[in-house]
Predict the structure of NIPSNAP family protein.
Amino acid sequence: MIHELREYVIECDRAPGYFALFRDVGMPIRGSEYGRLVGNWMVDEGTIRFLHLWSYASLAERAEKRAALGKVPDWTGTFLPGAIAHVSSQSITILNPVAGAVADRGAHSLAHGPGVLHALRCKLGKAAQVAAMLARAHADADGVWVAEFPDPNAVYLLNRSEAPLADQVELAEIGVVNVSCTPIDAGPYRSPLD
């Protein structure tokens, strides 16, 4: 199983229009047929960062489902042009789930609510060790991931606490170069099952 973390940057005045488009057009087209939405969050920093996490069985399945979605006329003719008009930039990170609710074979969606996304940049070859340490130390986390790309030396932890993950010296000793901590709020989309 892999996860795709999509991050869109949206100007504040364009966010309501994009979120309505995502809810009313994008999600009805996508459903779970083209990947399963695991969670979505927002960060308001003057501009809006919209994060959404999708689950796929593999990179090959992701490629197949994205190609199939690209052939849906309402997606390419309605949703994408509207999204392009609202979104300033996007980035995609492919993640390998290590622990937490998300690693349980993708059976769970994440709690809809606020959280904290910790990103740890590790020395070359240390990401797996750091992820294992986080999984042990944060057994109640929503998720622990090792990035596949664009940075295979990055580890992500999603939990509910802004408290430091560990002493900076301890982190450095296991190979962590730097840590960022981003409070995230519940995203605009609520699954009909929520």
The two ends are 23 Å apart (CA to CA). The chain has five helices and eight strands. The chain has a mean pLDDT of 90. The first helix runs from residue 15 to 30.
